[in-house]
Design brief:
This protein is an alpha/beta fold. The protein has 13 helices and 14 strands. The strands form 3 sheets. The chain has a 5-stranded parallel β-sheet with strand order 3-2-1-4-5, with helices on both faces. A 5-stranded antiparallel β-sheet has the order 10-9-8-13-14, with helices on one face. Helix 5 (127-138) links the parallel strand 4 and strand 5 (143-145). Helix 4 crosses helix 5 (127-138) and helix 10 (299-318) runs antiparallel to helix 11. 38% of the residues are buried.
Length: 399
């Protein structure tokens, strides 16, 4: 598709400097109409007026949509069922939001007869890959425009000069942030500033969703989470929607300084990057879900599922949510969750969520077998032949 064939574009729009400049740049460079899309994913930003700002900057139409329940139900919860965690620490808060944004942009593009979609991700990060792979999977005929890979503006000053030239209102002081941040219902990420030096401790500004652990309450708090088929359905006996579950656990976890990690990770594009992530509710959910599985999931099913976790997490991180391998693996995971139903009680204290009790109607735990007291349910002598048979291979190898 040539540039002249692009008559209308859907732009992922936040209302900040980058996407405001992109909106006008698309109009100037491609001579096209621009429809903006802003997703409310629970980032707790005031989105009032963002549509009017887009229209004043030149958009022909501005969508602002609340996708919180869809985000929690169809993206966060399936990922939680998988136990996904990237490189052993990152709960994928930014990664999992991108396929939903891309999906809705494609739907708007179809409805508005757009020939292209555009995003504000830079050429260094992972988000460009996630947006574009998702778009390719859902609409291979739609062109993708990535301005940061096309234009010659390489600095904030250049963007501000472009904004001034084209009458785009910008509050320079307010828009200067200490960190590059991304927030949604599941987490908040911090990059840049002193974090670019892996030896430097994060500053006090790298906290939004969690209190510093030193400021967490000196008394523990207990919470009970109920699950059905691998999904959390209630907190402390109160039934909630998926989004309600995540938000409630965010408040509890944030209060106790839970879910904060400082890591250097491997980006898909080839570089290492240091970031601080706050995922209070997601951390509690991950710990509780894992603990419940221990009592009601078959050993071999669990071990096989565990072997898939690095692959599944990498698929999410690298942008392959709509790829056939992720969807196929999800089918196995969801089958494994059929009896992951029950309750977990956790103690929240000083940055930790510690499971202290669990129960399930499908529990595979037998006190009669596990007890150290006398009982007929387990014959200790049976272990003799079991060990001998398993030792044959070892004895032969070492002979």
């Amino acid at each position: 598709m040539s540039t002249k064939d692009i008559k209308k574009v859907v732009l992922a729009y936040s209302g900040g400097l980058d996407t405001s400049v992109i909106l006008k740049w698309l109009m100037v460079t491609y001579g096209c109409e621009v429809v903006t899309f802003t997703a409310d994913l629970g980032q707790e930003e005031d989105l009032d007026g963002v549509d009017q700002k887009a229209l004043k900057t030149g958009a022909v139409k501005a969508y602002v949509e609340d996708l919180q329940e869809e985000f929690a139900r169809d993206y966060i919860f399936p990922m939680m069922r998988a136990g996904a965690i990237y490189e052993g620490r990152y709960l994928l808060g930014t990664s999992i939001a991108r396929p939903l944004i891309a999906k809705r942009m494609v739907e708007i593009a179809r409805a508005e007869n757009c020939q292209a979609v555009a995003h504000g991700a830079t050429g260094k990060g992972n988000d460009q890959v996630r947006f574009e792979l998702s778009t390719m999977a859902l609409a291979p005929d739609i062109k993708i425009i990535a301005p940061w890979r096309e234009w010659d503006m390489g600095s904030r000053t250049a963007l501000l000069n472009f904004a001034a030239k084209h009458g785009i209102p910008m509050h320079t002081d307010a828009s200067r942030k200490e960190y590059s941040m991304d927030r949604n219902m599941l987490h908040c990420s911090f990059e840049g500033g002193e974090l670019e030096d892996p030896w430097c401790e994060p500053g006090p500004g790298a906290h939004i969703m969690t209190v510093p652990v030193e400021q967490a309450p000196n008394e523990p708090e207990y919470v009970v989470i109920d699950f059905e088929r691998g999904d959390a359905v209630a907190v402390n006996g109160e039934k909630m929607t998926p989004a309600g579950i995540v938000k409630t656990l965010n408040r509890l976890g944030g209060k106790h300084g839970i879910g904060r990690v400082d890591i250097v990770e491997n980006r898909f594009v080839g570089m290492k990057c240091r970031g601080v992530y706050e995922t209070p509710g997601g951390t509690i959910l991950h710990i509780a879900h894992r603990d419940l599985e221990a009592i009601c999931m078959d050993r071999e099913v669990m071990h096989m599922r565990d072997s898939f976790i690095p692959q599944y997490a990498t698929m999410v991180y690298n942008g392959f949510w709509f790829a056939p391998e992720r969807e196929t693996l999800q089918a196995y995971i969801d089958k494994s969750q059929e009896k992951v139903t029950g309750s977990v009680r956790l103690k929240l204290y000083k940055g930790n969520a510690v499971p202290v009790g669990r129960k399930s109607p499908f529990s595979l735990y037998s006190q009669a077998i596990a007890t150290f007291e006398e009982g007929a349910a387990y014959n200790h002598a049976d272990a003799t032949g079991f060990i001998r048979l398993n030792g044959l291979r070892i004895k032969g190898y070492k002979a």
